[in-house]
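User: For my dataset I need records formatted as: sequence, then structure tokens, nothing else. Please produce one.
Assistant:
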Amino acid sequence: MPVTQSVNYVFESALKTAELGFDAVSHQDHFFYVHDERGTVPECLTMFTAVAMRTRLKVSPLVLCSMVRNPALLAKIFATMDQLTKGRVYLAVGACWWREELKGYGYRWEPPKTRVDMTLEVIKIVKKLWAEDTVNYDGKFWKIRNCRLVPKPYQKPHPPILSGGEGRRMLRIAARHCDGWIGVTNSLEEYKEKMNYIKGWLADPESFIFGNVFQIYADRDSVEDVVKRVEKFVDLGVSRIIFFIHPQPRNLEMLDTYAKVIDYFR
């Protein structure tokens, strides 16, 4: 979703995505606009609720910043969204990367190891709350006492949890604690290297979800080029294909063009 644009533009893009036959939409979890883009940057989970109620699309942050929401509240939000959508929710989470953004909104900026430690605690707490009746958790960053989460998620055992981390430790966390991993690369060799590393830590390789974000630039990427690129990743075993179309102010018109990639695979 072109989240640096106006709220109405983002919402209209999501509605059009549903009309064109895409399966899901993703939304960056940012408070500021990124790099040279300009716009409003709507809050991720609020926008998802609106989109999910108006369409049959699946929704997933890309990716959720683990440091900006209490994990028990996060588990509650996603369980509620999962019930409302009858199972059309993914939780994709990362360790955050943008110092200025977090400091601008009043959050402490932590070194990489601490942010990864916090992300792991978030994943553990969310999974426990989705599965157990009463949760007590004594972590380094969060203390949970007699916490009860009702309703539980619609999906069983829980909504898929995907990791968006690129570092080796985040890849191991994805393998050990998550249901999938989403990369961001157009390089097949780079993706294959990370995929093989993750597989080395997996207990059940058959059920693990591999996804990738493809950066698509309207001024140079033809439909045929995108099809060829995606086919190579699909052959490798990637089952979640995400398009990040640039420039974002042209997303509405470019969706018509790149929906032809969907037509090809279907």
